[in-house]
Amino acid sequence: MNDLLPALPLSSGPPASGFLSSDLLSSDFLSSDFLSETVRALPSIAGGLLVTLEATLLGAALALVVAFALGLAALSRRMLVRGASRAVVEFLRGTSLYVQLFWLFFALPMLGFRLEPLACGVLAFGLNYGAYGAEVVRGSIAAVPAAQTEAAIALGMGPGLRLRRVVLPQAYALMIPPFKNLLIQLLKATPLLSLVTVADLTFRIDQLRSATGGTAAAYLLLLLLYFGVAVLLSAGMNALERSAKARLGQEGGGA
Amino acid sequence: MWDMEAARAALPVVLSGFGVTLLATVLGFAVAVVAGLAVALVQRSAPRWIALPVRGLAAFVRSTPVMVQLFAVWILVPGLNALTIGVLVLGLHYATYLSEVYRAGIDAVPKGQWEACAALSLPRRRVWRAVILPQAVRNVLPSLGNYAVSLFKETPFLSVITVNEMVHEANSFGSTHFAYLESFTLAAVVFLLASWPTSLLVRRLEARLAH
């Protein structure tokens, strides 16, 4: 199993037998040993959490740019532009995020380009989720009633102004709920970073696990931290949706 | 640079891993389809003291990384082989997505169908099995297809618990022959070749069922 990943920093592999019964019983679960180690490791865990947040937010920012570029191209009047957008989206979605990240990390250096591991992650997340987001952008813009565009034309607005002042503000409110789902998906993909030597949250907690042997407690803590971040991110997106709807004079939002 | 010899040697290795990938996809999705329906029905019909914890647990599983779940179960549950654990964990993770899909599909069955069942005083089991579920499943078929493709593309996560699926094989070939470029490029191409036609098929199904 050592052939799995040359750079696998996680000390994987089931521990020796006999370990498990003690692990699930209270002897190590939340033992004072685990607690004191955790307190000592708090700065390291916080550092890992910051790396995870950084990767999530940078990845999401890149994904947003990619989503708008590909999504607007998919609505172009030129068939060539539409076709190119379609092909890029299908390529980015069809090749699996996991393979894309590993390709950037392991294969790209063989072509002479070496990216920082975190940059590989941000690039892979941004391109992959950007392709999913392109569908959201395209669909949301298409869902704005045609009468809105017609009214803007009747008022003599040019295409750029129409998009900026009439169509996008309405489409934007529709995009937020699906973008929220994609953001959570992106957060959940970030543990992949620990496989390419990035010291993210998963990496740090795994160190804690190795140091204490408190496997169950460490993983529970890890899952709870991810859950907490997911809850915060979705609360933020719900607030964004409410404000976008309020600006349009609509009520509610944030399911 | 690209080495044709290495690519030729990598291809059978990658393809042999693809068999495991397909197996994991089919089994994992079977778990997801069945367990997802169970979760949806429990949330809808079970007494509150069961339905609420199930809903909370499903939300928790849905919002936390499947990779961490795989690691946790693999290390904490002894005596099961890696593929079994991978299929169960990935399947249950997707079950928490599918339960929401089923819920929406069930909600979309017109109210008149329920009223007609009540008027005919059909037994509850028959209401579900003969009237509601067939229509609900038809509603959600395209979504199920999309999630199947999505699960397929997430099977590489199983490599972290040593399942020898395609990316695991590509990775080990890459490290022993120092041919990452060839092996990962081939893996990407196989994923693309398999998932593109499937998603086109799902889109066509979507268009057909829309009428």
From TrEMBL, chain A:
Record Gene3D superfamilies: MetI-like
Membrane topology: Multi-pass membrane protein
Main location: membrane
Any Gene Ontology biological process: amino acid transport
Recorded superkingdom: Bacteria
Keyword RNA-binding carried by entry: no
Keywords: Amino-acid transport, Cell membrane, Membrane, Transmembrane, Transmembrane helix, Transport
Record-linked Pfam families: BPD_transp_1
GO cellular component terms listed in the entry, alphabetical order: ATP-binding cassette (ABC) transporter complex
Residue spans crossing the bilayer: 45-75, 87-108, 216-240
ABC transmembrane type-1 domain location: 49-233
Subcellular location per the Swiss-Prot or TrEMBL entry: Cell membrane
GO molecular function annotation: transmembrane transporter activity
Family classification: Belongs to the binding-protein-dependent transport system permease family.
Protein name (database record): ABC transmembrane type-1 domain-containing protein
Species of the source: Streptomyces termitum
UniProtKB/TrEMBL annotation, chain B:
Keywords: Amino-acid transport, Cell membrane, Membrane, Transmembrane, Transmembrane helix, Transport
Protein's membrane topology: Multi-pass membrane protein
Entries under Pfam families matching the protein: BPD_transp_1
Compartment annotation: Cell membrane
Transmembrane segments: 20-42, 71-95, 178-202
CDD domains, per the entry: TM_PBP2
InterPro entries given in the database record: AA_ABC_transptr_permease_3TM (IPR010065), ArtM/GltK/GlnP/TcyL/YhdX-like (IPR043429), Ectoine_EhuD (IPR014341), MetI-like (IPR000515), MetI-like_sf (IPR035906)
GO cellular component, as recorded: ATP-binding cassette (ABC) transporter complex
Any one GO molecular-function label of the UniProt entry: transmembrane transporter activity
KW Nucleotide-binding (keyword) present: no
Similarity field: Belongs to the binding-protein-dependent transport system permease family.
Protein name as annotated: Ectoine/hydroxyectoine ABC transporter permease subunit EhuD
Species of provenance: Streptomyces termitum
